[in-house]
Amino acid sequence: QMMSPGAAWIIRRILSGQSRPDIDPRAELVQRLQLAWKTGTSYGFRDAWAIGVGPRFLVGVWIGRPDGTPVPGQFGLASAAPLMLQVHDVLVNRDSQRGIAEPVQPVPLNVGVAAICWPLGQPMSKSDPNCRRQRLAWTLDGTTPPTLQAADQPLGLGLQERVWINAKGLRVAAGCPDAQAQDIALWPAPLEPWLPRAERREARLPPADPACLPQNLNQAPPLSIVGVREGDNLRLPASSRQALRLRLSALGGSGHRWWFIDGAPLADTDTRQDFTPTLSKPGRYQLSVLDESGQTARVEFSVVE
Length: 305
Hints:
Organism: Pseudomonas amygdali pv. photiniae
Keywords: Glycosyltransferase, Transferase
Order of helices and strands: HEEEHEEEEEEHEEEEEEEEE
InterPro entries: Beta-lactam/transpept-like (IPR012338), Glycosyltr_51/Transpeptidase (IPR050396), PBP_C (IPR009647)
Number of helices: 3
Strand content: 25-35%
Radius of gyration: 26 Å
Strand order of the largest sheet: 11-18-17-14-15
Protein name: Multimodular transpeptidase-transglycosylase
Domain Penicillin-binding C-terminal: 218-301
Mean pLDDT: 86
């Protein structure tokens, strides 16, 4: 058995486009399931496939050449999926004309619904300070999967940080008077460029109390980007064969830096290291950098022809 009936029910619901529980999820759990389907394309456009499972039928379609030679531009969503959907519709319409009702699949007993909170992905009260966004989610055997660290999460920047807070709400060392431990949930570091300022790591951590500074407190100056400014309009070279080359570095901050372009990893640099990325397409870009202390900086600029 590859998976439990409950896990299969949840995945099937996701693949049928019904992944999010409704406002009153339990009222809609027992219903006629729609077609759940998935497509795929092999390397080099050699195979295009689509598989769908409905209340009564499992339909699979493969499109390709017997000798395995490529068919350029052919992929599952464009080639195999339309045919698979047509075949399923024909079968469903035939049963409907014969008066055959679609079966109803009840929800397995070990599937439930819970209010979970981001960024940790776990059930908690909406009033909890670490509940930054609350959503409804399917649960299996009363458990919910936690948010995992991204593969490119910088070392030392976890999803939860324990700090000590005094009566003034300021961050202090553990041995300071009236210090109380507090766990603060933080978003995955690669999301920093897209988060509202109040949700970023540097804003979520309380300021330090100068009368009793926390240990290992970062005293580095604010992080800033050098090489491109907010709102810049940069022009591509006259020759269409050449890309625009930027020379970038960061001032301030502390330790290693991780660079992102439109949220995608771009480069890793040391404290005083420059690097020269290239941009070949016109458009609007967002450049951001994150250092080991959790500081971030970002600029938005445009590249024009």
